[in-house]
């Protein structure tokens, strides 16, 4: 939600679940079912195995590569503090998200 700057109600609409369901997930009162985990994986670009592992449906999945990659915004602000302003960073994030969606949609149609 943070990366896409979405509110819980917007995430719920994007995933096709109720706002109450997302609220229970965020408060720790409930965890997503397997179908919702698949939707979350598609939505976030995170491998479904990792999402299933995070919510407890699978044993822990080993990380490949560094344990935590920085968000693009953090990376860009550190690497290019004078070259990229907030508007440019937002535009690049949007382009990255469009490419992810394009890849996801082309994979769905194959």
What does this structure look like?
The protein has 110 residues and is mainly alpha-helical. It folds into two domains: 1-61, 434 Repressor (Amino-terminal Domain), CATH 1.10.260; 68-110. It has helices spanning 8-15, 19-27, 34-44, 48-55, 72-79, 86-108. α1 (8-15) crosses α2 and α3 crosses α4. The longest helix is centred in the C-terminal third of the chain and has 23 residues, at 86-108. The relative contact order is 0.08. The model has no long low-confidence stretch (mean pLDDT 83).
Q: What are the secondary-structure elements, in order, as H or E? A: HHHHHH
Q: Which regions contain 5 or more consecutive residues with pLDDT less than 50?
A: none
Shape: globular
- Tell me the number of strands: 0
Strand content: under 5%
Distance between the termini: 28 Å
CATH class of the largest domain: Mainly Alpha
**Rg measurement, Å:** 16 Å
Structural class: mainly alpha
CATH-derived topology of the largest domain: 434 Repressor (Amino-terminal Domain)
The whole-number mean of residue pLDDT values reads: 83
Helix-residue proportion: 55-70%
CATH architecture of the largest domain: Orthogonal Bundle
Q: Number of helix segments?
A: 6
Instruction: Sketch the major β-sheet.
Output: none
Domain module count: 2
């Amino acid at each position: 939600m943070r990366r896409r700057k979405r509110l819980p109600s917007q995430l719920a609409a994007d995933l096709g679940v109720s706002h109450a369901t997302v609220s229970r997930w965020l408060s720790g009162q409930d965890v997503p079912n397997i179908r919702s985990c698949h939707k979350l994986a598609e939505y976030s670009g995170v491998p479904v195995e990792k999402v299933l592992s995070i919510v407890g449906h699978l044993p822990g999945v080993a990380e490949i590569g560094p344990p935590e990659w920085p968000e693009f915004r953090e990376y860009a602000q550190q690497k290019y503090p004078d070259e990229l302003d907030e508007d440019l960073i937002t535009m690049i994030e949007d382009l990255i998200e469009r490419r992810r969606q394009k890849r996801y949609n082309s994979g769905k149609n194959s």
